[in-house]
Amino acid sequence: MRGLQRWKNKVAMVTGASGGIGEALASALAEQGMRVVLVARRKDRLEALAKRLRDGGAEVEFIVCDVGIESQVIEAFASVAKKWGGVDVLINNAGTGMMSRLEAGQWTDWCDTLKINVASYALCVREVLPQMKLKAEAQIINLSSLYAHRDQVANFSFYQASKFAVRAMTNTLRAELAQPTTHIRVGMISPGMVATEFRGRATSGAFTYESYFEKFPPLLPSDIVDAALYMLSTPAHVQVQDILISPLGQAL
After folding, report:
1. Which of 121, 147, 159, 212 is catalytic?
2. Which of 22, 112, 153, 208 has the most Cβ atoms closer than 10 angstroms to its Cβ?
3. pLDDT tens, 53-105?
4. CATH 3.40.50.720 is held by the domain 5-245
5. Catalytic-residue membership of 147
6. What is the DSSP string of the chain?
């Protein structure tokens, strides 16, 4: 893809990189010649992914980190700054959520959803901005959801609320950085149903990976990768603000 060459040897950090969309994004950025920092909690998966990418010739580091714990996130960014001089591209991808009617929701699930889906994004942005301000060009991409642009999605009300918050925060960040000399671009990708393990976890096994295919073909992680690479490929003066992407046939 034209325009991606300028990111070669630059540093990308991907949160939630141990599976699904995050793993696909990290792999694609490594294929583009970027130095990639994998961030997630599952050490075994990070080790396996890092080995695969290194075997392919990529420069990769992984950091076992719970993005819901401030001290671990601060340490992660400090580590990248020391090794590679900071982050050029941040992809906030870590996410959680549970299917539940609001009246049956659990306090701990609500708190976890806000902590991972919203507060961790803000925390990563806070820590990366001082590094990005020293760069010639930088990009932040927040993963949201099609639910952030839809009303009345039953049974996922709190998850949906968290994604609305990501949308508001992303827009606010863009406004805060807006100035004639800015070099930090801010974008958001809002996918519909994607065939990953997330749906099975969020529904406590009520839906499986295969159940995505029952009514219509879902999005694949590679579709989200294409959207992210497009954002990165546009000229430095072009800021792609939002990409909404859904599988053909998904009503909401």
Report:
1. 159
2. 22
3. 999 999 999 999 999 999 999 999 999 999 999 999 999 999 887 777 888 88
4. yes
5. no
6. -TT-GGGTT-EEEEESTTSHHHHHHHHHHHHTT-EEEEEES-HHHHHHHHHHHHHTT--EEEEE--TTSHHHHHHHHHHHHHHHSS-SEEEE-------B-GGG--HHHHHHHHIIIIIHHHHHHHHHHHHHTTSSSEEEEEE--GGGG-S--TTBHHHHHHHHHHHHHHHHHHHHH-STT--EEEEEEEE--B-STHHHHHTTTSS-TGGGGTTSPPB-HHHHHHHHHHHHHS-TT----EEEE--TT---
